[in-house]
TrEMBL record:
<dbReference type="GO" id="GO:0005524">
    <property type="term" value="F:ATP binding"/>
</dbReference>
<dbReference type="InterPro" id="IPR005715">
    <property type="entry name" value="Glu_5kinase/COase_Synthase"/>
</dbReference>
<feature type="binding site">
    <location>
        <position position="53"/>
    </location>
    <ligand>
        <name>substrate</name>
    </ligand>
</feature>
<keyword id="KW-0641">Proline biosynthesis</keyword>
<dbReference type="GO" id="GO:0005829">
    <property type="term" value="C:cytosol"/>
</dbReference>
<comment type="similarity">
    <text>Belongs to the glutamate 5-kinase family.</text>
</comment>
<keyword id="KW-0547">Nucleotide-binding</keyword>
<comment type="pathway">
    <text>Amino-acid biosynthesis; L-proline biosynthesis; L-glutamate 5-semialdehyde from L-glutamate: step 1/2.</text>
</comment>
<dbReference type="Pfam" id="PF01472">
    <property type="entry name" value="PUA"/>
</dbReference>
<feature type="domain" description="PUA">
    <location>
        <begin position="282"/>
        <end position="357"/>
    </location>
</feature>
<dbReference type="InterPro" id="IPR002478">
    <property type="entry name" value="PUA"/>
</dbReference>
<feature type="binding site">
    <location>
        <position position="152"/>
    </location>
    <ligand>
        <name>substrate</name>
    </ligand>
</feature>
<dbReference type="GO" id="GO:0004349">
    <property type="term" value="F:glutamate 5-kinase activity"/>
</dbReference>
<keyword id="KW-0418">Kinase</keyword>
<comment type="function">
    <text>Catalyzes the transfer of a phosphate group to glutamate to form L-glutamate 5-phosphate.</text>
</comment>
<feature type="binding site">
    <location>
        <begin position="172"/>
        <end position="173"/>
    </location>
    <ligand>
        <name>ATP</name>
    </ligand>
</feature>
<dbReference type="Pfam" id="PF00696">
    <property type="entry name" value="AA_kinase"/>
</dbReference>
Amino acid sequence: MTPGIDTKRIVIKIGSSSLTSMNGEVSRRKLEKLVEEVVRLKDDGHEVLLVSSGAVAAGYRKLGCLTRPDSLSERQAAASIGQGVLIETYSDLFISHGYVASQILITRSDFSDENRYNNARNTINVLLERGIVPIVNENDTITMDFLKFGDNDTLSAKVAGLVDADQLIILSDIDGLYDSDPRKNEDAKLLTKVNEITPEIEAAAGEPGSSVGTGGMKSKIEAVKIAMASGIPSFLGKSSTNSIVYDAVDNNAVGTYFEPQEDMEELNQKKQWIAFNSGPEGEVTIKPSAKEAILENHTSLEPSAVYSVNGRFKKGAVVKIFDPTGEEIGLGVVNYSSKALDQLINKIDVDLEKYEKAAIESEQLVCHLDTSVLTTV
């Protein structure tokens, strides 16, 4: 460990276009560059986790496809080939430097189930603490499109929150976030520091631009919003830039740094899971008087403040919370089943001794004022 260095836990996301060659196969040269920079961080005592795309891009030619396939079954078949190629290459390169890499394939359902979410967290913590380099990817071979994270930008932000990362680094084929599309406007200016994701910034993000990946600048901004809500600083830069990863950790790289506002309330692990990973199973509509108490005073939601219940859910489920106008204001873990809560608010066969708890405790409730990226996945 280099004396005087403040060690960090760092999540690095690298996209398909940043690690594959022009013909769609894994570029060993690009992977060598990335691994060498990660090794420098490891030698300095940092803990590093990679979220690596590239399974489909690495495998589709070996499947016999001339271009990236469109059909789900072909993409999944390509991923089953490419993931093996990818992790074998990573493993060989890290071993050559004296480090061990591990493979973690995740599906969205692993995150939506709280027990599996916590198990993934515990496993990755052990790997990082033992000096291993976990390499995470979505399990593309078995995941259906409607159950996907969407892209590895989103996955990397959620993984960063999962492991309480100190920094998220997203590597792409562009220098960072510009005030307009630099491919269309030669006067576009690089934004070097961003403290808030404004509508103007989201508009500047545009649409996906790479033919070998699933994400674009828009998905990266969404990922950054998740990281910022979790209190995690992020960096976006060009993967081919010399020493980009090492310099990004040292706050000395060309790119865009995203720093959460100092007065922004960070979501703890429980609230991160509720906001970004849980799968809501029902809905409750609250009375007008309860909205201000929840949004501004962060109070619990009492059964007496619930106006109606929609859907069937068990005690402990996550539900969406709506105000009387139909606007969704948050998510929370309910202390009652839909049947019990409906009976309570309509005073049907009520045994008050069974209803001493709040409908949703404040520490189990996340509202849109806590985060601008509340996700109902």
